[in-house]
Structure formats: structure tokens, C-alpha cells
Design a protein that fits this description.
With 299 residues, the protein is mostly beta strands. It is 6% helix and 48% strand. The chain contains four helices and 23 strands. Strand 11 and strand 12 form a beta hairpin. The chain is elongated, with a radius of gyration of 23 Å.
Length: 299
């Protein structure tokens, strides 16, 4: 079993998740592929873990190592879990069994957002994330660390409340971070759950949203605001912060919400997912995207 784990590593934890004893050893290579050494071999009983750590010289992990590395085991089993921690940030790469053959990069949504510049363009996997709102080819997933948009042309028949494992390229489109799976086979429903309670926000927070903000991509609600601009499919909403934000109603939302029933000057309660809209990442402004009939009601 070989796991490509490259990068600047501060710690590598190896866990034997199988039923047979095994060993683990890290072999180091330069970016040119030249071998530069290896760690001592760690013996692992079933369920046992060992951490190769820069702070422990006996573990053999060289300080400030930059290059590629492989973790090898003594048995050809798919029960060796590897977690790699990078110095200087909170990014973690996790590998399990056969997943490691393709170098699967498993991140929480918070990690992919905090480290977007590092991981953009890479194939990443998010697990145990719940669908909060679905707009056909675009939908939003959320875990305990954040929310993010997913795009698959034609969608995957995703439903609100689905718990998914999503694998795809981490990228951005029209100013917003998103995961782009190749197709439906890269999105797996693993269960159903309860959608998180929307986070209470102000119109000012939405108007001044940045893609680095932790609430970007999450389900939120504005408890009360006034329609200050009426220009369907976009409305301007203003609350007590006195800063107007945009509420955008796409074709899926308009199947559920009849904007002709609302007018400028009315007070409303608005729920939806946050995202950025602009010509490129870091440019543009935030907006709230309602979907359900209950997402946009009179106060």
C-alpha cells in the first residue's frame, strides 16, 4: 500500500484499522524523484496508531521536509489509515485503504475554504455533508465547519436533507468557491438528516460578504427587513443595519415564490444560502438565495 502524501509535513499519523498486525514506514523523495531516506519502521497491532512527528527526532520525520513521500505497509491490505498535517496551516489530508491509490484528499468544508489558494484545482473529497438547498445543477452542502456550492450539469437528483460524500475539483465560478464533480458517480448519498438551523445575519453582513468569511455558502436567515429595491428576479433588502443587500431568486426559486405578491416597502422574513456573485473570486458582492415558499414570507 503506497500513499502519496507530499507537501511540507509536520506530522504523519498512521493507524492500523484492520484485524492483522502490520508495519508502517515513510520513504522520502525529492521533487525530482530521488530517494533521500526513510523513517524507522513502526509496528502496529490492530487498532494501534503511530505518529511520525517533527518534534520527536526518534520518529525520523525530518524538520521542514519538502518533497514527496510514501507510506508503505508490510501487508497488502486496505486497512491503513494515514493522516498528514501540514506545518503553517490547519490543512489535513486523510487516506484510507484503496482511496490512497488515487491520493484522495479529504477535507472539511472549513478546511477547503481556509486553504482555498493551496488546494484550488485539486480533486478533493468532502464527507458527511448535508444538502441545505438544491437548485438543479447547483446545490449547497454544509458540514459542522461551513458550507459550499456543488455543481454537476443536470444535477444528481439531490434532495434537501440528503447526506452526501462529494468528490470533485475545487474551483470557483462567478466569484464563488465550488466543488465540480465529473458526474453523478462522484456524488454518493450516504443517508438523510436534519438541515442545520439557519444562522441569523444582517443585510450588512450579506452586502459585505467575502469568500473567506466562514458563513459564505451556509444557510442563513434575515429575521426582518424591508424591500427597498424591487427589480425581479433581484430584490434589495434593508434591515436595521441600514445597508442594502441583494436577494436573488433564480428559476427554481420562482417556481415556489411568486414575487408579484410582494412590493417595495413591505417587511419580509428571508431565508436562503449565501454566496458571492461577481466577475472573479474576490470581486463582487454577497447575496442571499431563497428557494422554498417558506424562505420568503411577509413579516
Amino acid at each position: 500500500l503506497y500513499n502519496g502524501v507530499g507537501g511540507v509535513t509536520s506530522a504523519v499519523t498512521v493507524t492500523n484499522t484492520g484485524t492483522a498486525s502490520t508495519t508502517a514506514q515513510i520513504q522520502y523523495f525529492t521533487y525530482n524523484g530521488n530517494s533521500i531516506g526513510s523513517t524507522p519502521t513502526a509496528s502496529l497491532a490492530p487498532g494501534a496508531s503511530y505518529t511520525f512527528n517533527q518534534s520527536d527526532s526518534s520518529s525520523g520525520l525530518p524538520a521542514g521536509f519538502v518533497g514527496s513521500a510514501y507510506v508503505s505497509s508490510s501487508t497488502a491490505q486496505q486497512h491503513l489509515a494515514v493522516t498528514v498535517t501540514f506545518s503553517g496551516n490547519s490543512a489535513v489530508r486523510s487516506y484510507e485503504g484503496s482511496q490512497a491509490q488515487t491520493g484522495q484528499l479529504v477535507l472539511t468544508i472549513g478546511q477547503l475554504r481556509q486553504n482555498y489558494q493551496q488546494f484550488t484545482g485539486e480533486v478533493i473529497t468532502v464527507t458527511n455533508a448535508i444538502v441545505t438547498r438544491n437548485f438543479g445543477s447547483n446545490w449547497y452542502i454544509q458540514d459542522s465547519t461551513g458550507g459550499v456550492r456543488v455543481y454537476v450539469g443536470g444535477g444528481v437528483n439531490e434532495q434537501i436533507g440528503d447526506i452526501q460524500t462529494v468528490t470533485g475539483v475545487l474551483t470557483d465560478y462567478s466569484g464563488e468557491i465550488e466543488i465540480d464533480p465529473v458526474g453523478a458517480s462522484d456524488v454518493t448519498k450516504t443517508g438523510t438528516g436534519t438541515v442545520p438551523t439557519p444562522i441569523v445575519v444582517t443585510t450588512q453582513q450579506i452586502a459585505q460578504l467575502k469568500y473567506t468569511d466562514s458563513i459564505d455558502g451556509e444557510l442563513v436567515t434575515i429575521p426582518v427587513s424591508t424591500i427597498t429595491t424591487y427589480n425581479p428576479p433581484s430584490l434589495g433588502l434593508t434591515d436595521s443595519s441600514n445597508v442594502e443587500c441583494t436577494a436573488y431568486f433564480d428559476s427554481y426559486a420562482l417556481q415556489n415564490i411568486n414575487l408579484s405578491n410582494f412590493s417595495k416597502g413591505e417587511q419580509v422574513v428571508t431565508t436562503g444560502v449565501l454566496d458571492m456573485y461577481g466577475p472573479s473570486l474576490g470581486q463582487g458582492s454577497g447575496e442571499i438565495n431563497p428557494l422554498l415558499t417558506s424562505d420568503f414570507v411577509k413579516h
